């Protein structure tokens, strides 16, 4: 589908590498302390490990707050356009805020907006999440997703409005043809 975005996992991968490296250092120093005793772990390698742990955790904190900065999705289309979606919620309010930035392949902004909706639009009184109203809200508010939903409705005859359904159906059809 021409409107499909492939998720970019670079920022998540960096977070995992830095975070797990810090955890590995902490686990190693804990293990060394348990096996060798407190006196043996006052050596320079333990001090270096503890210093590395604090540096990695500081880097991780910076990465989460300044680089990722509440980004919940970053994707790229085959044509080079990118979409970035950041979320936020203010304390004691039932409103969900999304900041959307859609850029062309040349990095010029095609659409930039903030959209707001109450959580009660997608969650029932008992806390059950209903994804279809969320999808519809996003498709109504974000132009490229609206176009994708319209194209999906045309291709499926209105049976499905979810972006990406056509791709799944094509795979199922191909698999069925292979089995024949």
From TrEMBL:
Function summary: Component of the signal peptidase complex (SPC) which catalyzes the cleavage of N-terminal signal sequences from nascent proteins as they are translocated into the lumen of the endoplasmic reticulum. Enhances the enzymatic activity of SPC and facilitates the interactions between different components of the translocation site.
InterPro entries assigned to the protein according to its UniProt record, in alphabetical order: Spc2/SPCS2
Listed name of the protein: Signal peptidase complex subunit 2
Family named by the database record: Belongs to the SPCS2 family.
Keyword Endoplasmic reticulum: yes
Chain residue ranges for the region called Disordered: 155-180
Localisation: Endoplasmic reticulum membrane
TM helices/strands, residue ranges: 12-32, 44-67
Keywords noted in UniProt: Endoplasmic reticulum, Membrane, Transmembrane, Transmembrane helix
Record membrane topology: Multi-pass membrane protein
GO cellular component terms, A-Z: signal peptidase complex
Main subcellular location: endoplasmic reticulum
This protein's record includes keyword Transcription: no
Signal sequence region: none
Biological process per Gene Ontology, one example term: signal peptide processing
Natural source organism: Emericella nidulans (strain FGSC A4 / ATCC 38163 / CBS 112.46 / NRRL 194 / M139)
